[in-house]
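Schema walk-through. Below, the input block comes first and the output block second. Nothing else is stored per chain. Lengths vary across the set, and this one has 284 residues.
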Amino acid sequence: MNDFETAQISRELERFYENKLRQLRRKDNGPRLSLTRAIFAAAEGRFRQGAPEEWEYWSRADGDPQRLALRWQDLLTEQDLITRDLAVGRSGAGGYLASAETPALESPLIPEAGVITAGARVRTRLVGDQLTPVTDALPDFVWLQTESSQLPTDATLTLGQRASTAKTGGTFIRVSYHLQKQSSIEQDLRMIVRLMAKNAIDKAAFSGSGASGEPLGLINVPGVNSVSGTSLGWTGITDLEEACLLGNANDERLTFFTTPSVKKLLRNREKASNTGNLFGSIME
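--- output ---
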């Protein structure tokens, strides 16, 4: 064995044990991912070499060294972050009469998309067209009269598929030098991007056009029942509930979405004279 082969084997062993140590560290404490480090490395075209841990979690399927593919759960602000708590500053010769600090950015809006809260499943890492298998027809289930009774002729289970296309969206945020000096900037960026994604997901899930890369919203799907909000009554609400249940929806997960103005309207509209308002009955 020559010196070149020895050096090559040594490098491979070092790389192997380095990965093992990294896996053990993640198992004990979880990965310490830095969005700032990933952005800097991707901006220089060395995402994989400059931020290997972030590359393993946030790299795109096509291996683009200058793009990040953040999953929905990666935008959570509760993750283990590398950040500072307070702003850094120095006082003058006489000091300060009152101290000052820069707390983390606060958002009064809910941190989760409404459709996801209602039970919509999130599928990540999708690339290209998707074919989801479904059951089109189930065989009959027959009760036997006696132990010796035979089942009738067999029935074929019919399977089908539903075609869909993965949609990709994003936003562009310029991270300046001064913005990096803000305390807990990573947490703030995650919260802002998550808030923007939440609003976009809800809007597309309900009223998406299905064109120009936008998902197809529920109200634009052919065959979906709709009722005019101006004339919505108790009969219309029960008809919608019946249509959902006949479509194999889970009764426990039925969710109503409305705007503040429609909520106000329903709170003042009765099912019938002196029988209670619609909004209270829906919430029951």
